[in-house]
Amino acid sequence: MVSSLLLGRIFLTVANTSSRIPLGPRSQWCDFTTSTARWSDSSPKPDAVVSYEELKNMLSCHNVQLFDVRNPDEFMSGQIPDAINIPLGQLEESLKLSPEHFQQQFSRQAPGKDDDNMVFHCQRGNRSLKALAIASTAGFQQGSTLQGWVH
């Protein structure tokens, strides 16, 4: 649930962007659409909101770095396949790891600062918004947050 204070600070302008990305050596293409939200506040806010349908398409194309910022016990009770669990309190430190240390700790390639396929999610969206702000402050300017709730 989004508070009325937050709603009062948000200036939403939704722009739909369609893209095609090549997938694999056979030149298969995956289509995806993102919705971009612009914010009136100068503090780091989400640059994009990814819907559940968009995320499913990104997952099927293997074109997403999905970060679950819930606590480990929440993650263990159920998660989206291929998500990396980095609790919100550890995110800033984890994003500062060298690519080698990130690989060792999470068994995944470290995200790049220019990557546009980073998606943060949690249970209700509050922590993923905070994660997006943390990532933006750390220089990851093109992250997204998953729209809606994850049960």
Automatic annotation (TrEMBL):
- Which key words are in the record? Signal
- The signal peptide stretch is 1-19
Cite the Rhodanese domain residue spans from the record.
60-151
Gene3D superfamilies associated with the record: Rhodanese-like domain
- What SUPFAM superfamilies does the record tag this protein with? Rhodanese/Cell cycle control phosphatase (SSF52821)
**Name this protein carries in UniProt:** Rhodanese domain-containing protein
